Amino acid sequence: MTRRPIRLAVDIGGTFVDAMELDTRTNRVRFRKAATTPARPADGVLNAITALGTDLSEVELFIHGTTLGLNAVLERRGGRTGIITNEGFRDVFLIGRGNVPSDHMYDFQYQRPESLVQRRFTAGVRGRLDYRGRVVEPLDPDSVREAARTLVVDQQVTSIAICFLHSFLDPSHEREAARLIHEEFPEVSLSLSTDIVREYREYERTSTTVLEAYIRPIFERYVDELEAGLAERGFSGRFLIMRSGGGSMTSAVAKTAPTHTVLSGPAGGIVGAAYVASELGRDNVLTFDIGGTSLDACVIERGNPVAAYEAQLEHFPLLIPTYDIRTIGAGGGSIAWLDHGLLKVGPQSAGADPGPVCYGRGGTKPTVTDAAVVLGYMDPDRFLAGTMGLRDAEARAAIQEQLADPLGLSVENAAAGVFDVLLARTVGAVRQITVERGHDPRQFALLAFGGAGPLLAPLLAREMGIGEVVVPFAPSGFSAWGMLSADIVNDFSRTVMATLDDADLSELEQLFKAVEAEAVASLVAQGVPAGEAVLERQFELRYLGQEHSLMVTVGRELDRDAIRAAFDETHRTRYGHTMGNPLQILNLRVRGIGRTDRPELETLPRGDGDPSQALLANRDAYDFGQQAVVPFAVYDRARLEPGDTFDGPALIDEGTSTTVVPSGQRVTVDDHGYLLVTLEEAA
């Protein structure tokens, strides 16, 4: 059978859907955007593919990143969810933790958002394990059936989360409860905590299971609808969905584990960034992804993105592997507004519907995109490669009436103020993942992508003293491009809770082998040959008495001295010191990986170093270097060649995004056609 040559990646953002096609015969990519359709998200995906014109019968692999699960929680659109747990513990999820979010630390009127599950939708059943996983009281089948009838018949729940005390040590009670419920109510969706995460911490594990149950019905419907739409258009290849912690999984697996997709869109960009960092020889990189509704930043340290094993949706914890992403509600669609005379930007967004004022779709509130139009950064006639005209007069009027006049400023200064506020918020987010964690941002390159990433990145570099900004090709579709290089991945864990000195290494080895067998079986079920599965072992460790932990990769042979040395070095790098305390093993982790072929970064022929052939025009725009409106040279990125060098102020237009280079910075085009923006003195 002839191998189909096309790979297709689609990423849903808050404003646009990005579709990226890779032809494996030529290594060439094509890219198109379509508007996000919040009411029917699958339509936006299919519209983007239609705009791209891809013959789906030629597609071998379709990979998708979506924030559908995240939005279902934020907008409270999930399934009617119930909880079954041990008798006497039905309020674990409702009580939660007593901590207050840091951004509400001094808000004495703070109230937690409404719970996803009301108390009448929770039920306790008889049966109990102790802290070592031993049966204290057998599971009572009649109690389980009665609880299920109460939730399904009386309360009309459609999805049930099953989470028993200490079940991470022995899942048999949860599995038996699921069997009993399925016999009586086969139509009800069931989520078991031990199928999702085998780790200690009862509230966090319960929260993860509840979110899984809450998201699953809507996510399953979405994936089924998208699969049907693709099949109608001739697609019969593999359908993969990105994971929040990098890598991908088949759509069938994703439907049973939708919580692993909640940050899958940003994860695609980080996977691509790690690959680009390796290819360009940059060990330390800050990713800087600004889309329509949010800004996402992540640290790539020594070639690897910083990972975390707990995420958060609103105040609900999620025990899932994820990248350590700092997200703020600041994007191209973020609304600029006045709060008692103070200019603020976000977190509210105009989204895709109605969108910014300049889109002409009924939006009335000025946004970052409208400010960019007023400042001269975006050509209204070339937006989205000329397929969507912008209404610059309407954007100017909105900023004049709602921001400039009340503040007593010119319309240009008011628009510049929008960027100043956005920049201040951005600096705070980047400091949280760099300076506050022992990193000097000046030692990193800044990789800018997303539709608005290149718009702001040179200003951020100037503000924070970052020496280099890297702008890849088609930055607004970079997350989709990154998905094309994603491996098939699955993560498994077990709680250990023993000191390294006291732990039996032979028992740990047997536990690793058991977990590795699960990982291999998962990969085989997703089409990865068992002999090609790559297995990575890790321990989650901390000094005895500490609260927080660090991850350490371990080899095939478990050596106490080597593990201790690796942890001490990681702790010294992160916190600047080590301790003499014994090490405590919290969890062991195994990541199973099925490698995929990555798209190559093409090396382009060098030009003569003269960028004049790419010069389109000169246009007046606001220069933050001079704090004034001055002429900017406007370049067509498609005509720039490796070796071309020029100074700001300059605009590099590529249809779907614009790189804004203020005075005092220099642009060099590297051998792959990437833009490298540096300070003139450094250059």
From TrEMBL:
Residues 506-673 form the Acetophenone carboxylase-like C-terminal domain. Pfam families: Hydant_A_C (PF19278), Hydant_A_N (PF05378), Hydantoinase_A (PF01968). It comes from the Bacteria. Residues 7-184 form the Hydantoinase/oxoprolinase N-terminal domain. Residues 205-490 form the Hydantoinase A/oxoprolinase domain. InterPro entries: ACX-like_C, Hydant_A_N, Hydantoinase_A, Oxoprolinase-like. This is Hydantoinase/oxoprolinase family protein.
